[in-house]
Design goal:
Layout lengths: L1 H9 L5 E4 L6 H10 L3 E5 L13 H14 L7 E5 L2 E6 L8 E2 L2 E6 L2 E4 L2 H10 L21 H11 L7 H7 L3 E2 L2 E2 L1 H6 L13 E7 L5 E8 L3 H15 L2 E6 L2 E6 L3 H14 L8 E5 L3 E7 L20 H9 L9 H12 L5 E4 L3 E7 L15 E3 L12 H9 L6 H7 L5 H14 L3 E3 L12 E3 L1 H10 L5
Parallel strand pairs: 1-2, 10-14, 12-18
Antiparallel strand pairs: 2-4, 3-4, 5-6, 6-7, 8-9, 10-11, 12-13, 14-15, 15-17, 16-17, 19-20
């Protein structure tokens, strides 16, 4: 009885409905609850929360069961009576959407509302009843856009035999349906994916430090979806550090983060994102982490707790094609595989942040130790076997370090180097040296201050001493 009183005390709401008596409109209420998150209907309680009770409990139970069975598909409910109040509980169920009398209802605050056509469509997408990647792409022209060049490129990526009929092959792969190209097919055959989806591209950016205050580099990729995937991986490999371990018989290269885990994360973002969103996949490289941000939140049937245990592709047709193209290593193993790879690599497991409209996978970058980045900020040298080996940096950075005396402004350094092109100086001298922590700003909290100056760090001084160039 206390539990019942506690429920009544909270009043009607998203998961609670009071009915004075009978089963009028009960089908609508039950349908709305099951299409939402479940709930409870208390029959024998007034709108003001007064317990009035009901009579003929057994007859009422039978009516409730008949109504539940008339919902499509039939609904499972739990019925109890507490002091003449009939408690009808609707637990969460997995056959959404449910309809009653041919109409669909959804809980809206403390009321149950019939869904409009657009709401039904959105609900079907959200629950995975309709898959956007399988729908016809209205912008794809089967004559103008399905060229031999595009099909042959796709065929190479997908490992298809040479000389196959275009239309028949794409129909067999379900990329063409009813004579029209699906969204997945358009994305895979695009020269510019933005022609077929305004936000299907990927944006990559490299930032100074751990915030978005200052951007060092940015690039957008918008070819076909497989080429986008490969280009994004190339960007990550270019911008991340590679440890060059000098050995007696040569040298080994080791990326600071496991490449296979990054590949899995990127392809997951492309395969499982919501392509109806106006936002694109965004990849951010900070000094301390790499973030892969995918729009759309979790697909229907997934919860944060199930990540790594269960796979529910939002775009099954696209996902299947990426698997065929060997971009996906093992079906259904994305997050678990990423975690396993990181663990065996000795890297931290990525942090996963799940919001209603976004999923962010964040890889923690290891701190630089004794080495420094080389070749444009892309690598680090660790002379583990031959400690006398001097780390290499770009000639531009070496030249710059040699002229920095005390604290100097950007203009003073540029003039000392006899460089006229400010952009060239910034991109090839100043920014790489700052990113490598060989020089530092005197006012780091105000990067654009007119009083800003630069000086050698302890690491920069140590590099000059080890390289034999000294400090001028």
């Amino acid at each position: 009885m206390k539990v019942l009183r506690d429920i009544i005390a909270l009043g009607e709401g998203f998961t609670t409905e009071f009915k004075l008596s009978g089963t009028s409109h009960l089908g609508r209420e039950l349908c709305a609850f099951v299409n939402s998150t479940g709930g409870i209907v208390l029959i024998g309680v007034s709108d003001r929360g007064e317990v009035v009770g009901v009579t003929e409990i057994n007859k009422l139970k039978s009516e409730v069961q008949n109504i539940a069975r008339s919902i499509e598909p039939p609904l499972v409910v739990e019925i109890d009576s507490v002091e003449n109040v009939l408690c009808v509980s609707v637990p969460p169920q997995n056959s959404k959407p449910y309809s009653f009398g041919g109409k669909f209802y959804l809980r809206d605050g403390a009321t149950s509302q019939q869904m409009s056509r657009n709401e039904i469509r959105e609900f079907f997408f959200k629950e995975g009843v309709i898959h956007f990647d399988e729908m016809a792409n209205e912008w794809f022209d089967m004559n103008a856009d399905l060229t031999d060049e595009r099909f042959n490129r796709f065929a190479r990526h997908a490992g298809l035999p040479v000389g196959m009929n275009k239309i028949q092959t794409l129909e067999n792969l379900h990329l063409i349906r009813n004579g029209k190209m699906t969204n997945a097919g358009a994305w895979l055959l695009a020269d510019d994916i933005l022609k077929f989806n305004s936000a299907a591209n990927v944006s990559c950016a490299l930032f100074m430090g751990s915030t978005k205050t200052r951007i060092l580099d940015r690039k957008d990729f918008n070819g076909d979806i497989y080429s986008i995937y490969q280009a994004v991986i190339g960007y990550l490999l270019e911008k991340l550090n590679t440890e060059l371990i000098i050995k007696a018989r040569g040298r080994d290269e080791r990326l600071e983060l496991p490449e296979e885990a990054l590949r899995e994360a990127v392809v997951n973002a492309l395969a499982h994102r919501d392509y109806r969103s106006t936002a694109n996949v965004q990849i951010y490289i900070f000094q301390d982490r790499v973030e892969i941000v995918s729009p759309g939140g979790l697909p229907a049937g997934m919860t944060p707790e199930l990540l790594g245990k269960k796979s529910v592709p939002r775009n099954p047709l696209l996902f299947g094609m990426l698997y065929r193209m060997n971009a996906v290593e093992h079906v259904g193993s994305g997050i678990k595989r990423i975690r396993d790879i990181c663990q065996s690599y000795g890297a931290e497991e990525p942090r996963i942040e799940v919001e209603n409209d976004w999923i962010t996978l964040s890889f923690r970058r290891p701190e630089l130790k004794d080495g420094v980045r080389v070749k444009g900020g892309a690598a680090q040298v660790t002379p583990e076997v031959t400690p006398e080996v001097t780390p290499e940096v770009t000639p531009e950075v070496v030249r710059m370090l040699g002229i920095v005396r005390g604290e100097m402004s950007r203009t003073e350094i540029q003039q000392a180097l006899e460089l006229k092109d400010e952009k060239h100086f910034r991109e090839h001298y100043q920014q790489p040296a700052v990113v490598m922590k060989l020089i530092e700003m005197t006012i780091p909290e105000k990067p654009t201050s007119r009083l800003q100056k630069y000086r050698l760090t302890a690491k920069g001084k140590e590099f000059l001493e080890k390289s034999g160039k000294g400090i001028l």
